[in-house]
Amino acid sequence: MVQRILFTVLCSLVLVIQASHLEYDGWLNIELYHALDVHEPQKFTSRGNVTITSLNSGASAVSQEPLTVHERNQLRKLAEENRLYRLEAHVLEADGTRSKFLTSSKACALAKSQLADVLWVSLDHAGSVTAVTQSVNNGNTDNCRDLTARDFEALDDFNTDVYVKPMESAPIPDTASFIQKMEREREARERGETKDNRGFFAKYWMYIVPVAILVLISGATNPEAAGGQR
Ligand SMILES: *[C@@H]1O[C@H](CO)[C@@H](O)[C@H](O)[C@H]1NC(C)=O
């Protein structure tokens, strides 16, 4: 019984702590376009879509077209000439904000890695996107000189991992926004609008945790009593 209550309290705590990464969770869509044509560097064609369904958990869904034979040959040309593979990310955020980010990596590294790449989506403290960066393993590439036809034979599907990178907590206290927040709360109080609609555990966890720990300790030091309740 005691253990079950404690377990419930701890689970709720974990949820509350996770939920407090951002003040609210959000989603966003990213359309990916890449420039493959050596002769037309401004021509971007569709590569696929990424949907991040939860900014807090980083859960994402990736849907990408396989390369056509023509696109594979274009990528091969980029790689053989040691050009950059350029990727443009069109971001649509939950509040309707649209932004574009350009990122690039060595075409031969992308070919050598068999189209495996990582997309980092960086967020500011409010959960807005500040950067989309493509990262490709460059470990086994010697300036594109050791490319062979075999590297290109099976290039069709991108294998993309997406990571959401929230902003690190600032090392100095953000007094300006704290004061603004206090001001907003004061104004809301004056208008009689304040309501604390956080969950029960979000409001009272600092009281519940010590009590739960005390209960656990007394249960552990008195196993007979705990056993006797069953
Ligand atoms: C990506 O999204 C666009 C617009 O919603 C759609 O036209 C396209 O088919 C999608 N591509 C993939 C690979 O899902």
Automatic annotation (TrEMBL):
GO cellular component term of the entry, any: EMC complex
Signal peptide: 1-19
Bilayer disposition of the protein: Single-pass type I membrane protein
Similarity remark: Belongs to the EMC10 family.
Transmembrane segments: 204-221
PANTHER family the UniProt entry points to: CHROMATIN COMPLEXES SUBUNIT BAP18-RELATED (PTHR21397), ER MEMBRANE PROTEIN COMPLEX SUBUNIT 10 (PTHR21397:SF4)
Location of this chain's protein in the cell: Endoplasmic reticulum membrane
UniProt main location, coarse: endoplasmic reticulum
Organism: Aedes aegypti (Yellowfever mosquito)
Keywords on record: Endoplasmic reticulum, Membrane, Signal, Transmembrane, Transmembrane helix
Protein name: ER membrane protein complex subunit 10
